[in-house]
Amino acid sequence: MLQLVIGNKNYSSWSLRGWLMLAHFGIPFEEVKLRLSLAEGSEFKQRLAALTPTGQVPVLVDGDLAVWDTLAIAEYLAETHPERRMWPAERRQRARARSLCAEMHAGFSALRSHCPMNLEAELSAVGAELMRTRAEVVRDLQRIVQMWTGQFQAHGGPYLFGDEVTIPDLYFAPVCTRIRTYGLPVPPAVSAYIERIDALPAMQAWVAEALAEQDFLDFDEPYRKSRAG
Ligand SMILES: N[C@@H](CCC(=O)N[C@@H](CS)C(=O)NCC(=O)O)C(=O)O
Predict the structure, then answer these.
(1) How far is the CA of 88 from the centre of ligand 1 (A)?
(2) How buried is residue 3: exposed, middle or buried, by Cβ count under 10 Å (0-12/13-18/19+)?
(3) Does one domain contain both 107 and 73?
(4) Separation of alpha carbons 8 and 146, rounded Å
(5) Best mutation site among 4, 9, 13, 14 for ligand 1, i.e. most ligand atoms within 8 A of its Cβ?
(6) For 34-73, how does the pLDDT look when each residue is reduced to its tens digit (9 = 90+)?
């Protein structure tokens, strides 16, 4: 049975992506959850050391093969489960889908660093402040809106590549949660898409487990004070 090693569900956006690829596409797997830690020598780092030189989650374990990094996990699962049609069926659309995932993988650094995933938090005051003070966050958000509305125009929705959920939808699921957590302003078509992604059964299951965790990590809570106050 495949295993997926992940971090805390409340915070770990990359884990969420990997987990959704398995759970949404109905691929059986066993989840191994480790408490996130940046500290060398922590249980998190020690357990990961045997699997990946990056010391990061997620890691997919298939027998004696460990696959790390979300893009590599996406490709491995798509290759080993072609019947699940995880990428769009048409080659040109597959290329576009990979471009969007790669863009997420390598970019959106302002959105990622200023709006870290935090599923149980409500940080709309922080989001409003960021929209006023951080042009780079505004630019990242504008690119998201442009990307998604472009996809809806090209394929008619309801998902980024048409009728079926494909890997890019899951890749951007943590961006959907950030837009909600930080109350970032988006047009109605984008809000409706976020609601559709939120409503996916796999997403609902992850969020319910995240909310039940109640395990707060200081290094993932840069706005803890503003939440309290
Ligand atoms: N490029 C990696 C990023 C993975 C990543 O940043 N994982 C975070 C959790 S969301 C992590 O393990 N952080 C611990 C650390 O960096 O020490 C991927 O796509 O899997």
Answers:
(1) 26
(2) middle
(3) no
(4) 31
(5) 14
(6) 999 999 999 999 999 999 999 999 999 999 999 999 999 9
What is the SS3 assignment for 33-56?
A: ECCCCCCCCCHHHHHHHCCCCCCC
Output the residue whose Cα is nearest ligand 1's atom 20: 69
pLDDT of 225: 64
Q: Does ligand 1 lie within 6 Å of residue 171's CB atom?
A: no
- The CATH number assigned to the domain holding 60 equals 3.40.30.10
CATH number, domain containing residue 198: 1.20.1050
- pLDDT category of residue 224 using cuts at 50, 70 and 90: confident
- Tell whether 226 is covered by a domain: no
**Is the beta carbon of 14 within 6 A of some atom in ligand 1?**
yes
Q: In what order do the strands lie in the sheet with 65-68?
A: 29-33, 2-6, 59-62, 65-68
Pocket test for ligand 1, best of 15, 21, 57 (most atoms within 8 A of CB): 57
Counting from 1 in the atom list of ligand 1, the atom nearest the Cα of 14 is 10
Q: Is the CB of 186 under 6 A from ligand 1?
A: no
Per residue in 92-129, pLDDT (tens digit) is: 999 999 999 999 999 999 999 999 999 999 999 999 99
Q: Is 152 in the pocket of ligand 1 (CB under 6 A)?
A: no
Tell me: pLDDT of 228 over 50: no
Q: What is the mean pLDDT of the chain?
A: 96
Paired sense of beta strands 29-33 and 2-6, if any:
parallel
